[in-house]
Amino acid sequence: MSIYTRTGDEGKTSVIGARVMKDDERIEAYGTIDELNCFVGQAMSQADPAEFADLIQHLLQIQHELFDCGSDLAFVQLSESRYKVSASMVDQLEQWIDAYEQENPKLEKFILPGGTALSSTLHICRTVCRRAERRTVSLGAKRDINPDVLRYLNRLSDFFFAVARTANARLKMADIEYERSAKVFRNQ
């Protein structure tokens, strides 16, 4: 099998049901999801398997689910029967967020992204995920999409925020509060 096909040399690519320009909103959305998946892989490579076995397992599952998101966004015609992303995947993210948040110190103010290398990469995942979400919102404003993809990306960025903090907490690195932040988070 050849890795190159030459079919994209004119600036077009195939999606499920059509050929579109490579800068089409659909390609921008799932291309950003693909970029996010690369950063998730980088985060996994930075996580110590002894300290972060649970996180590595969750990130691996997320990598598969990001492929599912891209697949669902590749449909030109609405095809609910073929969608892979579902509400149960969003529910799973919420359960993981709640569990990781139990490990994190209370949060009252905005924090600066950073700390450990793993935390920094997870914050990059968070911001790329937010961009993927914005691209998906733009696509959904013009075309029919699986609405669960949008919900998944929204919750996934919250997951990355939570686990970035957990990465610092487990490695005894304090988050750095933004020095001009008011108290913006309510702890329960």
Task: Give me a quick take on this structure.
With 188 residues, the chain is mainly α.
What can you tell me about this protein's structure?
- It is built from 5 helices and 4 strands, in the order ββαααβααβ.
- With 188 residues, it is mainly α.
- The protein has one domain (12-177): Up-down Bundle (Hypothetical Protein Ta1238, Chain: A), CATH 1.20.1200.10.
- The strands form 2 sheets. The protein has a two-stranded antiparallel ribbon. Strands 3-4 form a two-stranded antiparallel ribbon.
- Strand 1 and strand 2 form a beta hairpin.
- Helix 1 runs antiparallel to helix 4.
- It starts with 11 loop residues before the first strand and ends in an 11-residue tail after the last strand.
- 36% of the residues are buried.
Write the layout of secondary structure elements.
Elements: E1 12-15, E2 18-21, H1 25-46, H2 53-73, H3 87-101, E3 111-112, H4 117-142, H5 147-170, E4 176-177
Antiparallel strand pairs: 1-2, 3-4
Question: How many strands in all?
Answer: 4
Distance between the termini: 56 Å
Report the structural category.
mainly alpha
CATH class: Mainly Alpha
The CATH homologous superfamily is called Cobalamin adenosyltransferase-like
Strand percent estimate? 5-15%
Domain module count? 1
Helix content: 55-70%
Q: Report on the biggest sheet.
A: 2 strands, antiparallel
Oligomer: single chain
What is the CATH architecture annotation? Up-down Bundle
| Lateral arrangement of strands in the main beta sheet | 1-2
Organism: Paenibacillus zeisoli
Domain Cobalamin adenosyltransferase-like: 3-167
Enzyme class: transferase
Subunit structure: Homotrimer.
